[in-house]
Amino acid sequence: MISTWPLTQFWLPQQEGGxxxxxxxxxxxxxxxxxxxxxxxxxxxxxxxxxxQRLWExxxxxxxxxxxxxxxxxxxxxxxxxxxxxxxxxxxxxxxMAMRGGERPLDDFFTALPLEAEAxxxxxxxxxxxxxPLKGNPGDIIYASxxxxxxxxxxxxxxxxxxxxxxxxxxxxxxxxKMILG
Length: 182
What we know:
- The protein has one helix and eleven strands; from the N terminus they run E-E-E-E-E-E-H-E-E-E-E-E.
- The protein is mainly β.
- It has a single domain, classed as Immunoglobulin-like (Sandwich).
- Strands 4, 5, 6, 9, 10 and 11 form a six-stranded antiparallel beta sheet that branches. Strands 1-2-3-8-7 form a five-stranded antiparallel beta sheet, with no helix packed on it.
- The chain is globular and about 45 Å long.
């Protein structure tokens, strides 16, 4: 089963200037969660030079978030257009607040779980593919979200998400899309 959602800016009454569309398709098979994001972008860019960097500070990036129903911990995977990735595992949202407040470093949350990632520049922009381990059974429920930082010259990044966030905070798990594995 494939679930596809557009990347939008639910927290705004209308899309901001510079917004470019994209879609994210989620699927699950053989113990893996798959994400394929297709993004319109006239200027694909990143300054990332290695894995496990703060990719959102380096330019364009796609982020995948997911958690199992009933769990407090969750995963965040990112990919930049040049293929560099960031893999994180948070025990709960309090950990994210501690990291944002400078009380804990980002590398406290690095995870070494296997990750398959591919970024492809296209005529329209770029595509991002992420495949991550997710053991489960058909019928299991997870919550997932895909978010985007669209870098631009002379402006802050334009952010978007597949989740109906009422505020611009991609870590709000209660807003993520419900998916039934199958």
